[in-house]
Design brief:
It contains 18 helices and 22 strands. By secondary structure, it is α/β, with parallel strands linked by helices. The protein is globular.
Length: about 600
């Protein structure tokens, strides 16, 4: 039996003066269809949805809607002007036959009472209000453009369940791979103005797309067609990047196992050395019994955590749980109310500014990357031409003189990533890095994180992204408690039995926080009869930090010397001596860090124990 058609587009064409954005697109949506629409940023996905919703007219072609079919469309930038409250805005989207109770049910599920004024809403609240408006009715067709942007994990998982329970046909545009996989049963790929349909879910899409691209490349060589080199690289490099990422996903298992071994109970853990790669696990950040409160609200309670060199720590929790506060405390921007946060020597953090406030819209892409002083970018101590560096981030050479202000959201995201990784750092801080990024840019970000030689702290609501990059997850557990789990987001769910839950309303009674144990009037003198540090141990605690700093400086000098490509050919003996000295210095630095950490933890036990 044929599926009843609800909505169709026939030979739709759209152009804004240049190459066609949509070039003869055909599309049909039937009862029960669950379709994801994917394509690179700028390929025309949002315009195609707007045509399907009747928001804009195409240059050619027709839109066919079966009589009586109700369609609801979620734009990327909702407009709440003209409505005093959220409830008023949502109820205005109801039809005569719709149940007003549904509006209140959906609003409550997304964290609203309905009385909130629309003029004071944040970006995430505006998105949730717009979702409430399209979900409150029971439409035949839902057209959702990036519905997960600015939503937290509880809201995203609620949305998945809500969509799964609906009878509505669905076209979904999203960068959230996990949602695309869980919700959709068919895939539309918009590429170079043409839509291809895969009668399988998103899980099969990337392999199918790569097969098509490889076939096209073979045909291109057979016909000897001339295609611009940069276009060839941008398009067909996708397949290679995905295969590299698959290998790195396998390698991530080894990193996670290392994390499990290194993060034993604090007080018994010993740092380990990876002899195969001659890389010593180094302490980057240590938090001990950290606490923080804003007024009567406890944000962080009794948190102890160690972050080692090379770790990728994902931080997850509902909106309002204190993720950004925690991030600022770990990086030293905010002091804790209790406990301490200590950093390793020579820590050089760099933060990816996802609000993009640091980007000057009037400057060109080249000026933004180089500072406007040259055509070179220095990355890892090596100078590189700006055009070559741009290509690493999927930009074309002719975009070098493009003003930042005309870049798309995904392109600005790639530019911020390029700026951050061009800075010298050993700690990368990413607060919601996946917002507004397309799938190709997410692949690029995962690749860059895999190659980044330092440590990364990542706050994200993207479950698939966390599974692909994180070696450990720090999850909010309510009332200021945070618990660390080895592995990615799926590993965390397997260990705790559930994902991230919504934060309890402020009006709900919360358990009393555990009172900290008194420390004998905060005296630093150990109690009679208790063990104490010997003179040599006390002396070592005072002198080891300077010793570690000196050793770290020696490592930098030796690494710089060995970076000279002509040294081996010029003086083989000197090269070998420097390499041996570097290995010895690294080992001495690791031993000093181990000794200092053991002594510091013993001192804490003596002075702060019951």
């Amino acid at each position: 039996m044929a599926i009843e058609q609800l909505l169709a587009l026939r030979d739709v064409r759209l152009s804004y003066g240049g190459a066609p954005l949509l070039d003869g697109v055909d599309l049909a949506i039937g009862v029960g269809d669950r379709v994801c629409l994917v394509g690179r940023n700028g390929s025309g996905k949002s315009n195609l949805l707007r045509i399907a919703a009747g928001q804009i007219e195409p240059d050619a072609g027709e839109r066919i809607v079966t009589k009586g079919v109700g369609i609801r469309y979620l734009p990327q930038e909702p407009d709440l002007n003209g409505f005093a409250t959220v409830l008023e805005y949502v109820e205005a989207g109801l039809g005569p036959a719709d149940d007003p109770y549904q509006a209140r049910r959906v609003l409550e599920a997304l964290g609203f009472s309905g009385a909130e004024g629309t003029s004071t809403l944040s970006g995430g609240e505006i998105r949730r209000a717009a979702l409430s408006r399209v979900l409150a009715p029971d439409p035949d067709v839902l057209l959702l453009d990036e519905p997960t942007n600015h939503l937290d994990l509880p809201a995203i998982e609620w949305l998945e369940e809500e969509l799964a329970s609906r009878r509505s046909a669905l076209i979904l545009v999203s960068h959230d791979r996990r949602m695309l996989t869980n919700v959709c049963r068919n895939t539309l790929w918009l590429d170079r103005g043409v839509v291809r349909r895969l009668t399988q879910g998103f899980a099969a899409f990337e392999e199918w797309r790569d097969t098509i691209l490889e076939q096209e490349e073979v045909e291109r060589h057979k016909l000897d067609r001339k295609i611009a080199a940069e276009e060839d690289w941008v398009r067909y490099g996708v397949s290679g990047r995905r295969k590299r990422n698959q290998k790195r996903l396998r390698d991530l298992g080894g990193l996670r196992q290392t994390r499990v071994e290194s993060q034993r109970a604090i007080g018994t853990v010993k740092l380990t050395v990876n002899d195969a790669e001659d890389v010593t696990a180094k302490l980057v950040i240590e938090a001990r019994k950290v606490g923080k409160a804003w007024g009567e609200q406890t944000v962080i309670q009794d948190l102890s955590l160690r972050i080692l060199h090379g770790d990728r720590l994902g931080i997850v929790g509902p909106n309002g749980s204190g993720k950004t506060t925690l991030l600022r405390m770990l990086t030293g921007d905010l002091k804790p109310d209790a406990g301490y946060v200590r950093h390793g020597v020579r820590l050089q953090p760099v933060t990816l500014d996802q609000k993009r406030a640091s980007l000057d819209p009037a400057r060109t892409l080249q000026e933004t990357l180089t500072g406007g002083t040259s055509d070179q970018v220095t990355v890892g101590g090596v100078s590189k031409h700006v055009v070559g560096y741009m290509r690493d981030f999927l930009f074309k050479p002719e975009q070098a003189r493009t003003p930042v202000g005309v870049l798309s959201g995904g392109e600005r995201g790639r530019l911020m990533l390029a700026c951050a990784l061009a800075q010298q750092s050993n700690l990368l801080v990413l607060d919601e890095p996946t917002n507004d990024l397309d799938l190709e840019t997410l692949d690029l970000l995962q690749e860059m994180l895999a190659e980044y030689p330092g440590t990364a702290l990542v706050v994200s609501h993207d479950r698939d992204f966390l599974d692909r990059v994180a070696t450990a997850i720090l999850a909010y557990d309510g009332n200021g408690r945070w618990i660390e789990y080895a592995g990615g987001y799926s590993d965390m769910v397997a260990q705790r039995g559930h994902g991230v839950r919504a934060k309890a309303p402020a009006s709900a009674p919360a358990p009393e926080p555990r009172a900290p144990q008194p420390r004998a009037a905060q005296s630093t003198e150990p109690r009679p009869g208790r063990p104490r540090l010997g003179f040599k141990e006390q002396h070592a605690l005072k002198t080891l930090p300077k010793q570690m700093e000196a050793l770290a400086g020696d490592v930098v000098v030796l690494e710089a010397r060995l970076a000279d490509p002509a040294l081996f050919a010029r003086d083989k003996t000197s090269f070998q001596a420097a390499a041996t000295k570097l290995a010895e210095t690294r080992a001495a630095l690791a031993a000093a860090e181990d000794q200092w950490l053991a002594l510091e933890m013993r001192r804490e036990e003596i002075e702060g124990g019951p």
